[in-house]
Amino acid sequence: GGLLDLGDLRLDGGRAVEGRVVDEAGNPLPDRGVVLLGPGGRWSGDRYVNRVTRRSDDLGRFRFQGVAPGTYEVALTNEEGNAPAKTAVEVGAERDVLDVVLGMAAGGEVRVLVVDPEGNPIEGIGLNINAADFGRSARSGADGRAVFTGVPRGEARVRAWDLSRPHRWAMEETLGTPATAGGPEVRITLHPASPIRGRVVDAEGKGLEGMQVHYRAPEMPYGQIATSGPDGAFEFSSGAGRPVVIDLQPFRTVKGNPQPERSPFRAEPVTATAPAEGVILRAIPVESDRTLTVRVLDLEERPLPGFLLTLLQDEKGSFPVTDGNGEVRLEGLLAEEIQFGVFAPQAAAGQASPLPEGAVLPAPVKVMPEGQVVTLRLRRGTALPGTVLDSAGAPAAGAQVYVQTEDYSVAQAVADGDGRFRVFVATGVKLLLAHAVLMGEAGPREMKQIRGEELEGGDLVIRLEAVKGR
């Protein structure tokens, strides 16, 4: 073929972003990790940027080169010695950004002491501290102490847990101990692990196996789970002398079924104080012969066969599926309110999605099963485009994408050859998360889930990360 004269071809090398890391007094802070995120965590035309990290030099300076136009965030990395600091920068096409200043608040120390009920120090206890945009972990030393540095001002919380096996000390039954940078030493008292043993029994006193026993401190909304064994026996450890509330979860496990199923028993909560033996949870049967028919219709009121209900899986790991009339009859339901939605079956390769273009799955519903028919209709949605990039930055063709909204409706798509995808989401409903996965011969090869601010601003960009061990 002939030659094509392109004239003067000029490649744009991008712009620079540079600045300084300083303390509250304006003094330079050397050897601090600085990260560039962007543009704005979202796709911008045909440009994207990796997460790039630099370290400040002896004068606190840092520099990022080859940055495409867009909105970025420059922040200190979450590492020992750094306190939270971040700022947004707008990079134009014509000039560099040279005046970024990351001012790191001084932060302070939080000193922690872990002791037993007699005041003796406990060594080797795991500790973590959490504050706004800040988190660190440590272990108590031989003197029972640990020190966290660079903790930002404001309230933080410290939690402790026993790293030994078996546990010698009971888990903390709190949301954490309040702490303040520069404040008094935080004292955490751990109690020796002490057993609470009991049984789950029916009205005749027969033990019930596979019941999920839930126990928690009275002030806590959640706790831990133990599963009853043969003859309904259960056992767990709690702090000696500390009361816990024990009740049943609405699920149980049955031999031969790897999936938990809805339990037809409930129990009045009981309170026990460790050490305790012979605790009895009396399981009360719930009526379990209710029925419900679910009908799923498209935008034109036509039935949708093959759609799945988001109820618990059966012993084969499958979900209830609508028939040719778009209906599924549910039997053996408990006399309790249930919540469920629907999701579309996965389209075969080369076939169109069973979800019509522009349609969104129905919002989940909550009903008391009383033999009625519940109709769920598809909704008209708003288009949400995006791009999936693999871990090398190339378009991730064939990546499966799932976008979930706050009403727990899920939209799905497959990225095209350019890594682009488009899903439709319910209008006016906040996005909850987006998840993308690139499959390999042995399962997921790369995947990534994004939340929060990364979902805002229109087009999504999901950058995959390699799955460990693949």
Give the fraction of residues assigned to helices: under 10%
CATH topology of the largest domain, anyone?
Immunoglobulin-like
Arithmetic mean pLDDT: 83
Structural class: mainly beta
Number of helices: 0
What is the count of distinct domains? 5
Can you tell me the CATH architecture of the largest domain?
Sandwich
Shape: flat
Question: How many E-type strands?
Answer: 39
Largest sheet: 5 strands, antiparallel
Annotation keywords:
5-stranded antiparallel β-sheet; flat; single chain; about 475 residues; Immunoglobulin-like
Please explain how this structure is put together.
The chain is an all-beta fold and 470 residues long. It folds into five domains: 15-103, Immunoglobulin-like, CATH 2.60.40.1120; 108-189, Immunoglobulins (Immunoglobulin-like, Sandwich); 197-285, Immunoglobulin-like; 290-377, Sandwich (Immunoglobulin-like), CATH 2.60.40.10; 380-466, Immunoglobulin-like (Sandwich), CATH 2.60.40. It has no helices and 39 strands. The strands form eleven sheets. Strands 16, 17, 19, 20 and 22 form a five-stranded antiparallel beta sheet that branches. A five-stranded antiparallel beta sheet has the order 34-33-36-37-39, with no helix packed on it. Mean pLDDT is 83; it is low at 40-50 and 313-317.
Topology record:
Blueprint: E1 15-22, E2 33-37, E3 52-55, E4 61-67, E5 70-76, E6 86-91, E7 97-103, E8 108-115, E9 125-131, E10 134-139, E11 145-151, E12 155-162, E13 177-180, E14 186-189, E15 193-201, E16 211-216, E17 224-227, E18 233-239, E19 243-254, E20 257-262, E21 265-267, E22 270-273, E23 276-285, E24 290-297, E25 308-309, E26 327-333, E27 338-340, E28 342-343, E29 359-360, E30 365-367, E31 373-377, E32 379-389, E33 400-405, E34 410-414, E35 420-426, E36 431-440, E37 443-451, E38 460-463, E39 465-466
